[in-house]
Amino acid sequence: DKGPVILAPNHQSYCDGLYVCLGFTKSELYKTYFFAKLRSYLKGGILRKFARSSNVVIMDINDNVNESIRQIAAALEKGGRAIIFPEGTRTKDGDIGEFKQTFAILAKEMGARVVPVAIRGAYEALKPGATFPSPRADIYVQHLPAMTPLDGETYSGFAARVRAAVEKAWEGMKTLPMKCSDFRK
Predict the structure, then answer these.
(1) What is the pLDDT of residues 96-128, one digit of tens each?
(2) Cα separation of 11 and 117, whole Å?
(3) In whole angstroms, what separates CA 135 from the centre of its chain?
(4) In 10 A of CB 95, how many CB atoms?
(5) What is the pTM of this model?
(6) Helix (H) or strand (E) holding 81
(7) Terminal CA-to-CA distance of the chain, rounded, Å?
(8) Which secondary-structure segment (H or E) carries 164?
(9) How far is 109 from 23, CA to CA, in rounded Å?
(10) Which residues contact 141 (CB under 8 A, 6 or more apart)?
(11) pLDDT per residue as tens digits for the range 41-53
C-alpha cells in the first residue's frame, strides 16, 4: 500500500524485527525503517556500522531522542514504513507491557496508519541471556488490520486501543490448534 505505515509489535525477543518482516518483499524491506534503542552491542564495531548504513535508526535515550524521531518522521513522510516497538523494551516476563505514546504521536502527526502486530512464543524461544533461539519453540506472528487515530482521540487513547488489539490477538494465540512446524508441511 501507498502512504506511511507504522508497524507496532509487542516486543518479546531480539529477533522480533525479523519475525515482523518475514513475509516482506525485497522492495518492502528497502522501505522499512527499524527504530532501535541503543544497546551495548551497538555502541561500536561492525553492528554499529551496519546499522548506520541500513534503515536502522538508533535512539540513545541519553543523547539523540529528538533526532531519532525526526529520522523516522522523515522516512514516514516519504511513504516509508517504520517498525516501532511501543513497549520500548523487550518483555521481562513474556507478557505485554504498557505501550508508550511515541508511535501514536508519529501516526497522528504524520497521517500514518498503524498495523498492530502480535508476537507470541518468541520470549520462550529466546529468553533474555540466550544466544540462539530454541529450535523447538513455536512462534506466532499476526499482522492485524491497520488502525488510524480517531477524530479527537488522544495519543494515549490511541496507544491503548492499539495495545488492546495486540493483546486480544496475543491471547487468542494461546489456543491455536496448529504449531508453526505444521505450516511447513
Answers:
(1) 999 999 999 999 999 999 999 999 999 988 887
(2) 10
(3) 22
(4) 11
(5) 0.83
(6) strand 81-83
(7) 30
(8) helix 155-172
(9) 28
(10) 9, 19, 20, 22, 117, 118, 119
(11) 444 555 555 555 5
